[in-house]
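Journal club side-thread
Mid-discussion, someone asked how the predicted structure for our own chain would compare to the paper's figures. Pasting it here so we can look after the session.
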Amino acid sequence: MAAFGIQFLIHAIFSLGPGSGPPWTPAHPFWAYFIAIVSVAAAVCIAAKIQVRCAAIVLAVTILLRALLFYLPRLAANPHDPVPWTSGFELLALCGAALVLAGAQTTIKLGRLLFAGPLVVFGVQHFLYAHFIATLIPSWIPGHLFWAYFVGVAFVAAALSIATQIKAGLAATWLGIMFLLWVLVLHLPRVAAALHNGNEWTSLFVALAMSGGAFMVAGSSSRKTSA
């Protein structure tokens, strides 16, 4: 979240063009500053364990409003464009993770559903655009198309497990590990090869945030099982 906030600030201060910041970068500098402040402040509060529930809820509401106000109209206008589906549902998943972090029973249940729903969308996209996704896999890994389909199945299976709370802790843990492996194997090398590409940095931060969100979902499911 802190990294996203810094990206928003850089984009607003230097008036960089499209593609230089997060895929949901606001068009107006005011909103870039606003979201940057919320993201960084929430990150500091969460890291320092200061009013974590309040910070997580404010963060969740901010992310949700951004998804609804910016991506819902784009989806309605062009439902066949995969970009708003990906970025918009990434926001919904991060909103769900923030609600899980808030820690109240109601927010945890809602957060799990908001986190699980986008996984189905990501899974379907892996089937629809498998050949394109296969090109993103590092050349030294064999069976590119297989892994594109495999991850699609993994997304859908994890979504069902989290939504139904059947082996949810295990599924969310493996999901978190998968995202973390992507950070190390896929995104870090791409960032190193294109340090000035804002989209590559954003993809890395999204994968890292999704990994953390999955581990939080796993933790909330484990606490329920233990209780």
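Post-session note: Residues 2-226 form one domain.
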